[in-house]
Amino acid sequence: xRFRYDAAAENVARLETACLKTNATVDDCRQQVERSxxxxxxxxxxxxxxEKIVRKGAEGTAFEYMVSCGDxxxxxxxxxxxxxxxxxxxxxxxxxxxxxxxxxxxxLGQQTGEDKNITRADVVAYVRQGTNxxxxxxxxxxASAAPSMEVARTCGSEENMKKLLIKATGNPLTxxxxxxxxxxxxxxxxxxxxxxxxxxxxxxxxDTDVDKDVAKYEAKYEHEADDYFYEATGIKPDGTYDLxxxxxxxxxxxxxxxxxxxSDVHSGCADPEQLLNDAIATAKGRMxxxxxxxxxxxxxxxxxxxxxxxxxxxxxxxxxxRDADRKLISRRxxxxxVAGSTQADIEQxxxxxxxxxxxxxxxxxxxxxxxxxQRSDKAMExxxxxxxxxxxKDSECETKxxxxxxxxxxxxxxxxxxxxxxxxxxxxxxxFAAEQSCGDSEKSVCMQATxxxxxLGNDDTRATTTTTTIKTTTI
Length: 475
Prior knowledge:
mainly alpha; 68% helix
């Protein structure tokens, strides 16, 4: 089923482009796209599902155009004896403003020149998501071809990730920090893809099962999702490795994808709350397509009337939505910076996704706090990558982290920066909280992973002597 959806995404992008060349209306083309997507997916597709497919197809198209145009910019830089970085930057900018943008517009079903306000940051965001998918597929292919799972786990090395990014962006000046950030995103992408594959396969089985024995194939496809993740990464999700943060990031990405699709639906999103619930359940491997108990409603009424389970779910849901909000803004601000935004206009660029953000965080009063947390996330991403590379002193890595966060602070003075010590403490708190979600059988693995992630020394009082073998990976 995953391959059916991948084929549908690729086909709708080509069909949108080809249809518009016939001078058909945008609405007529969209109807043709919907019929084609349903034929390839082998099932009825509602509005939000269609928009997810269209968006994925557009991301792939933007990526392909960027690779083609970026190759020429890269070649010109290689042949330039002076290695003019400014000329390289201009060439890549022209790619995004020209061929890539035009290709993206057509893949989204827009007539060339139609005023849909596709900005340079939008183009970068689509290219980045297409790059993420390409990198995940490349990692999967590398792992599948590896002679052993030990070798497969080296496919996500910094060197390999850097090569993928250079190919995807045309930028030979791609940094090691960027490669490490991509590596983390890929793990979450593959994890989420595995869960989605299991959910779709279970739904297809449910459609043909006369007895409707849900438990039978729910267990089967949960196992197949685990096998897919193992084959793609060399990591078996059996408690030997700590995948707590990977699942956390995958859940946030799933929510963001759902909210984006909801905002893209031309006739309006019918049930945003259920859409987000399904996104969470899918990422968690609960297969909402067949499991009617996979999702829960957010508790209503006075908190004093809530049960213990209600309170626990409400807290989990709040955390998941905050993670998703920060993920959405992270994707957007990363694209804004690449597109050339400065502190003078970063707020305007960031807030271009406000309509999507309202689906995730309806209360705008929470946005400034979440923006602050997202800047902290960015700083820690840069800091961790710098430390992992080992090319500078801790103080130099802290400076890089602060600079990365500072460029996301609007210059109007209404939003402020945290100190680096505050951001480090916030990361540690979040990491320890994630550790608590580990089951008893996985606790020692999670504790060790937290210790390594936060670079805790022997004074970590939580560490206890254990005979469990703790495995780590380069992916």
